[in-house]
Specification:
6 strands, six-stranded parallel β-sheet, single chain, alpha/beta
């Protein structure tokens, strides 16, 4: 599926291990982050973006996907595209995490599978795929050097995409 890049937004963010609240989504900081993602999505939508790419990882990716689903319910023309790095992505997750993943997948408007099997490069390939398809990167970033989120920000900047950072 091809979309006009000018209406596409990619997302990147940290997994629970890099979040100060870990897996505790009831933590007020996590609740506030989800509200911030929702507010940013509303603004991005108002700016003309309609297609949202999500890498489907635990943590911030899931928050983003769920907020896009809510946006889709309010605004019928928003689309959520899952960009899955490999077919085994959720295999080591808990049953509840896999259920959440599958619930989100059922509510997407499409998906792209980067690699059938896990490879050392598939996560970075997923991130670059999303940036290459988008003119905007929205990300949740803790400011620490290194890691996939920072690499994705740098790649987006080199690629000429606009970058919006939500500080964690």
């Amino acid at each position: 599926m091809e979309y006009d890049k000018s209406i596409c937004c990619a997302f990147s963010g940290h997994r629970p291990v890099k979040l100060p609240w870990g897996l505790n989504e009831r933590d007020p900081r996590c609740v506030a982050l989800k509200a911030e993602i929702a507010a940013r999505l509303d603004g991005i939508y108002e700016a003309g973006y309609r297609v949202f790419f999500c890498g489907m990882a635990l943590g911030c990716d899931m928050y983003f996907a769920e907020e896009v689903i809510k946006l889709k319910e309010r605004r019928g023309d928003a689309k959520l595209i899952a960009v899955i790095p490999c077919g085994s992505q959720p295999d080591r997750w808990t049953a509840a995490q896999r259920q959440r993943y599958n619930d989100i997948l059922l509510r997407t408007d499409g998906s792209e599978l980067i690699s059938v099997n896990y490879t050392p490069e598939c996560m970075q390939q997923r991130n670059r795929y999303m940036v290459d398809k988008s003119s905007l990167l929205l990300c949740c970033y803790n400011g620490h050097p290194g890691g996939g989120t920072m690499s994705t920000i740098l790649y987006a900047q080199r690629s000429g995409a606009d970058v919006v950072i939500i500080d964690i």
